[in-house]
């Protein structure tokens, strides 16, 4: 690898405008086939800073530091991670599970660190970052003093970096289940084999918001482990947790028992089919949480995803009782805010209901969405009220 990587004016412009990525098409010559930390310069030799280099990825460079005089060593990683942890200090009083590092959102590109009580789950999402694994783990061990650190390196994104997929214990020990508390609600996270790093931490504050308006008969659609259902159960008379996965619903029932909720029942069924049947039965719900999986995994899948989102939302809208509240969300990055709102407007028109937009939400503070880096944000949420 050369001492410095030269990039085109277009690539340099992305950094100057605040986006941390430079693509392989903007590299001037090949910097080699070994991943790692590299100095970056413009064609004229002007230094731009330091980056993580991934030779097999379309995202060739990920900005680390604009200071060309910086030294990217163990001390650098410790200071940057310490700053990210400090920004979340207040969260510890409200939730024992939260994100400590949100990749580019914390100027720590391709690094994800989630805390589950006394344990940490990490993801190294680029080849360049993998070469810094030792410094990252040492910093986390020192700063967070965890009982164990688990690497959930089974995300498909790693395949694009030509990195192996798998789950690996990096330090100490990590149990198969971890009990955590979220604004007074207890649930079991599954760090070894659960979705993401063990739970959906990015919907935490939205769950609290739904719980605050929960009443009467409630429905948690695409419930998974019942995270929304648990918050609904605190205010609703009865809650139905709907999901297609039997094992996920088994954990939802365990979570309900953990909190002493006896008003939560589970239904294993395809959400689309069940909602259509419920409409035929003229069922009504006073509160509905609709948090489907990412239907749009990529841009080509977006048209079909929009159709799916539109249908599932209009079905939920038709099930709302007069005055009922629907919280609906999308975690598809490719479905942006304008398209999300357009979809809801179309679904409302198709449903024949008059619905008011009471709130528009996003991600919690531990998942910072940085202006100018759209990839740091993906959650869109809306609280809707049936006016009649």
Question: Your description of this structure?
Answer:
This protein has helices at residues 9-16, 74-87, 127-130, 133-144, 157-160, 204-213, 227-233, 246-259, 271-280, 302-319, 337-351, and strands at residues 4-7, 21-23, 36-42, 47-53, 59-65, 97-102, 111-116, 119-124, 148-153, 166-172, 178-182, 185-189, 217-221, 238-243, 264-268, 285-290, 320-330, 355-361, 380-386. By secondary structure, the chain is of the alpha/beta class. The protein has 3 domains: 4-65, Roll (Archaeosine Trna-guanine Transglycosylase, Chain: A, domain 4), CATH 2.30.130; 74-175, 2-Layer Sandwich (Transcription Regulator spoIIAA); 200-386, Vaccinia Virus protein VP39 (Rossmann fold), CATH 3.40.50. The chain has a 7-stranded mixed beta sheet, sandwiched between helices. Strands 1-3-4-5-2 form a 5-stranded mixed beta sheet. α10 (302-319) links the parallel β16 and β17 (320-330). α6 (204-213) packs parallel to α7 (227-233), α9 packs parallel to α10 and α10 (302-319) crosses α11. It is globular. The model has no long low-confidence stretch (mean pLDDT 96).
């Amino acid at each position: 690898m050369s001492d410095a990587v030269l990039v085109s004016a277009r690539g340099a412009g992305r950094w100057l405008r605040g986006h941390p990525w430079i693509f392989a098409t903007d590299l001037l010559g090949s910097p080699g086939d070994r991943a790692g930390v590299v100095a970056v310069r413009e064609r004229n030799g002007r230094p731009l800073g330091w980056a993580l280099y991934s030779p097999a990825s379309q995202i060739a460079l990920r900005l680390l530091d604009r200071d060309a005089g910086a030294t990217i060593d163990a001390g650098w990683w410790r200071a940057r991670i310490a700053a990210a942890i400090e920004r979340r200090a207040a969260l510890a009083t409200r939730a024992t599970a939260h994100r400590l590092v949100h990749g580019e959102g914390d100027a720590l590109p391709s690094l994800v660190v989630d805390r589950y009580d006394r344990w940490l789950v990490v993801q190294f999402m680029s080849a360049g970052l993998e070469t810094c694994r030792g410094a990252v783990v040492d910093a986390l061990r020192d700063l967070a003093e965890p009982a164990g650190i688990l690497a959930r390196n089974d995300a498909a994104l790693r395949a694009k970096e030509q990195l192996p997929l798998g789950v690996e214990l990096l330090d100490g020990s990590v149990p198969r289940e971890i009990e955590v508390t979220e604004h007074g609600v207890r649930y079991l996270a599954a760090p070894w084999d659960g979705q993401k790093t063990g739970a959906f931490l990015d919907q935490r504050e939205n769950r609290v918001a739904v719980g605050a308006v929960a009443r009467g008969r409630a429905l948690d659609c695409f419930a998974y482990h019942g995270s929304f259902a648990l918050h609904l159960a605190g205010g609703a008379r009865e809650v139905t947790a709907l999901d297609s996965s039997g094992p996920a619903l088994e954990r939802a029932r365990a979570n309900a028992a953990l909190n002493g909720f006896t008003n939560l029942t589970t239904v294993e069924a395809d959400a689309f089919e069940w909602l259509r049947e419920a409409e035929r039965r003229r069922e009504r719900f006073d509160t509905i949480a609709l948090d489907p999986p990412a239907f749009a995994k990529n841009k080509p899948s977006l048209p079909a995803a929009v159709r799916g989102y539109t249908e599932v939302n209009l079905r939920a809208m038709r099930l709302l009782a007069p005055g009922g509240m629907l919280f609906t969300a999308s975690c598809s990055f490719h479905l942006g805010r304008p398209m999300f709102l357009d979809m809801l407007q179309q679904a409302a028109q198709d449903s024949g209901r008059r619905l008011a937009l009471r709130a528009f939400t996003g991600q919690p503070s531990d998942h910072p969405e940085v202006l100018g880096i759209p990839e740091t944000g993906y959650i869109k949420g809306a609280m809707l009220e049936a006016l009649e």
